[in-house]
Amino acid sequence: MVNVEVAYAKPEQQVIVTVAMEEGATVEAAIKTSGLLELFPEIVLSELKAGIFGVACKLDQPVREGDRIEIYRPLVHDPKEARRQRALKGF
Question: Which residues of the chain have pLDDT under 70?
């Protein structure tokens, strides 16, 4: 068994759940086991982006002891477009 954390954060709330997984379990399995999909219905597994310690990963990647899996929310604004709009206001 390996122990991993699954984290999800919203502007007003952060939740980190520790789960024990079988050796060879995937990121997707850990997310499902964490119960965060039920707790936060806005998380859609088929559209989900995740990472381990801030590095993007695929859902079929095996987890290792001590990994912190992070579920990422979609960006509200495109950073490049936001920068472009700020620059236009400056002229």
Answer: 76, 91
